[in-house]
Design a protein that fits this description.
single chain, 229 residues, alpha/beta, eight-stranded mixed sheet, binds cytidine-5'-triphosphate, binds calcium ion, multifunctional enzyme, EC 6.3.2.5, phosphopantothenoylcysteine decarboxylase activity, FMN binding
Length: 229
């Protein structure tokens, strides 16, 4: 029975993880979404739980099995995701891996939009969604000891990630290149750069499950060293 002797360095620690896309309604039957599968966020949640953490996974709409030993809260919109994330605080660890829609439709219709005969499409005014990572990273009263964000970028990946580290009040940004050629979205592998105030560490291309496992171990080590001070 290996499980009985598995090290549980995160026992007694609480974690909140966001994962998946958000869906932003246009009307009762239509929404704006993105290509996030939730695989990476769910893998991190599972790996934190495997190290003994008490994990709340706030998940947008995904077609994944709930990770074992994790409390899953399902949401659709960015605003629902923010509320569920704040409700999971206080926590020691926040990992914001969701691909939150940057904008929502400002005035979603209560009834299905119909073609009006003129041929003119309806104007879709957009409103900025709340930034969940920045809200948690800058939270005056309930900021977790370790706040981790992801950054899906194309082009100057590390530069954009470092800017997000500062702007969102994160301790770590896990940055990856999501150019179509990378195959990250929907795929099972990920190539990530760990961007912290101290520097950047690049991991080899790994299965998303393995990235989750290593990230959970990185988090456990970081929390342990902070506690030792
Ligand atoms: N994030 C969030 N809430 C948002 C937008 C992003 O919590 N409304 C989080 C993501 O979960 C991720 C990190 O912020 O951990 C970076 O997301 P990203 O989309 O790369 O950042 P943005 O600030 O939205 O910048 P961009 O214009 O590049 O999309
Ligand atoms: Ca964004």
């Amino acid at each position: 029975h290996f499980a009985a002797t598995a090290p549980r360095p995160l026992a007694g620690r609480r974690a909140v993880v966001t994962s998946g896309p958000t869906h932003e309604p246009i009307d009762p039957v239509r929404y704006i979404a993105n290509r996030s599968s939730g695989k990476q966020g769910h893998a991190v949640a599972a790996a934190l739980a495997a190290l003994g953490a008490e994990v709340t996974l706030v998940s947008g709409p995904v077609s994944l099995v709930d990770p074992a030993g994790v409390r899953v809260v399902r949401v659709e919109t960015a605003r629902e995701m923010l509320q569920a994330t704040l409700a999971a605080l206080p926590a020691d660890i926040a990992v914001m891996a969701a691909a939150v829609a940057d904008w929502r439709v400002a005035d979603a219709a209560d009834t299905k939009l119909k073609k009006d005969g003129s041929g003119a499409p309806p104007p879709l005014g957009l409103a900025l969604n709340p930034d969940i990572l920045a809200t948690v990273g800058h939270h005056a009263a309930l900021r977790p000891a370790l706040v981790v964000g992801f950054a899906a970028e194309t082009g100057a990946v590390e530069i954009y990630a470092r800017e997000k580290l500062a702007r969102k009040g994160a301790d770590l940004i896990v940055a990856n290149d999501v150019s179509p050629a990378s195959g990250v979205f929907g795929g099972d592998a990920n190539t990530v750069h760990l961007v912290t105030a101290e520097g950047t560490e690049t991991w080899p291309t790994l299965p998303k499950a393995e990235v989750g496992t290593r990230l959970a171990a990185w988090i456990a080590a970081r929390l342990a060293s902070a506690t030792d001070l």
